[in-house]
Specification:
2 copies of one chain form a homodimer. The first copy, chain A, is an alpha+beta fold. Chain A folds into 2 domains: 113 residues, Aminotransferase class 4, branched-chain amino acid transferase, N-terminal domain (D-amino Acid Aminotransferase, Chain A, domain 1); 149 residues, D-amino Acid Aminotransferase, subunit A, domain 2 (D-amino Acid Aminotransferase, Chain A, domain 2). Chain A contains 8 helices and 16 strands. In chain A, the strands form 2 sheets. In chain A, strands 8, 9, 10, 11, 12, 13, 14, 15 and 16 form a 9-stranded mixed sheet that branches. Chain A is globular. The two termini of chain A are 21 Å apart.
């Protein structure tokens, strides 16, 4: 494969040589945010949604981004043009920057990387996956921070249970998976997703605004609600809609992906194919 | 000032050129641990305690340190010899390493840095400081992880209240400050410190084992207990014993550092001056 480049503070650099100072607060104190979007057929998917969330995360964490929306898009454009990866993912990371005292915010570093889409994409769609649950609440859940300490730490726990992912809950209320939102379909065929203490996923938002002949709403959801659900699925930028057929020791429905999940996946795909933000950047 | 060096994976390098790959899980996912100890008069203070905790943190986080205790001490020795900073602090950081998929653990990177002691040391000892409280529970509290997202984020909140630090509490039970443990002295002159969900600070441990003519014990402590306390102080490697004379809107005792706090500070200083781990490393 030819060299893949990235951009650090507007400077183009081969990913193999891309580094940040050991004094960066991202590394010193786990202080940073990011966002990630797909490129399909040379077109960023839901770019404006992702950039808006990136700016909101930065603002919440008091990290000043020194590039305008247009400048940021120019840099993304530049990277896409040089890397020539028509189907891929782009990640924007903004760190706390070099800190003189190891604690006070410095001048944030912006890192833009591009990488192949994860192979995960092709797994589990036909059969559905198993997840396990774990008590945990992400700090500052509305911010897409780099804090995945618990998520990385739980990987062996997930594997031990022959599961593919973990669902967090707190005080008996479920919230989200580390990198995905969750939806349940009740026996009454209502589609529900947790309303608070979660990241507002871009695909989650798209699902909530789908025009479908059943209600999709945000509400508090208990662990028992999940165990009783007729269908469960997760949503994320890399996974779109992924059916869940087992949670802890409970089989979901008849153990195969459900009818409503399937309908939502189809409706979502139509929205993605329209891709409203595609007009803003095209590779020349 | 002459060049300050650091050591990355056993390689000596000027701190100004020290960097890690942007693919490191420390930066990508906030996944890493560290420890920090003082050098006084060219002698590491409580070195074995700090290295033991460093190894325990690494083990808890499943990060494999490829150096033995002796090799680690050799590297520290080498750094002290070249930097020639007789009174300073040394920080060991172990990160998740370069991750192929941005999530799975790589080969951990060990970074050893040396820096001047923080000026904070000289402030507040005579008069005591003010702290504020905030609801938060550190994830994996027994591990000295790099997760200081909340602590860094709260800095403006602390300044707005003209305070110098913040005390975390959860479900009405206090735990710790971001970089210090807390002790209270009750009206009955019992010295207490929270027993669970805190980092086992090295100075905290030294205080708990002081030979003094009053009881010092670990116990659950409520916010009301703290507001009612006769004396409060915090302990940390950089601060030793720092008196607290105001918490939120409550004055502590008569608003000046207390008698028992003073006695504990004096007893601790005798222990530090003995410095049991000093024999293991001396700069040549």
């Amino acid at each position: 494969m030819s060299t893949i480049n990235c951009i650090i503070n507007s400077e183009l650099i081969p990913i193999s040589k891309a580094s940040v100072s050991v004094s960066d607060l991202g590394l010193q104190r786990g202080y940073g945010i990011f966002d990630y979007f797909k490129i399909l057929d040379n077109t960023p998917v839901f770019l404006d949604d992702h950039l808006n969330r990136f700016y909101r995360s930065a603002e919440s964490m008091r990290l000043k981004l020194k590039y305008s929306d247009a400048e940021l898009k120019d840099q993304i454009h530049e990277l896409m043009n040089i890397n020539k990866m028509p189907d891929s993912g782009i990640k924007l990371t903004l760190t706390g920057g070099d800190s003189a005292d190891g604690f006070s915010l410095g001048s944030p570093n912006l890192i833009i990387t591009q990488s192949p889409l994860p192979s995960y994409q092709s797994k589990g769609y036909g059969t559905g996956i198993k997840i396990v649950t774990h008590q945990h609440q992400r700090q500052m859940p509305a911010v897409k921070s780099i804090d995945y300490l618990m998520a990385v730490w739980l990987q062996p726990f997930i594997k031990q249970h022959n599961a593919q992912d973990v669902l967090y809950h707190n005080n008996n209320l479920i919230t989200e998976c580390p990198r995905a939102n969750i939806f349940i379909v009740t026996k009454e065929e209502k589609v529900l997703t947790p309303s608070i203490n979660v990241l507002n996923g871009i695909i989650r938002g798209k699902v909530l605004s789908l025009e479908v002949p059943f209600s999709i709403t945000e509400v508090a959801i208990t662990l028992d609600n999940v165990y009783d659900a007729k269908e469960i699925f997760m949503t994320s930028t890399t996974k779109n809609i992924l059916p869940i057929v087992q949670i802890d020791n409970h089989q979901v429905g008849d153990g195969t992906p459900g009818r409503i999940t399937q309908k939502i996946a189809e409706s979502l795909l139509m929205v993605i194919n329209k891709n409203p933000s595609s007009s803003s950047i095209m590779v020349s």
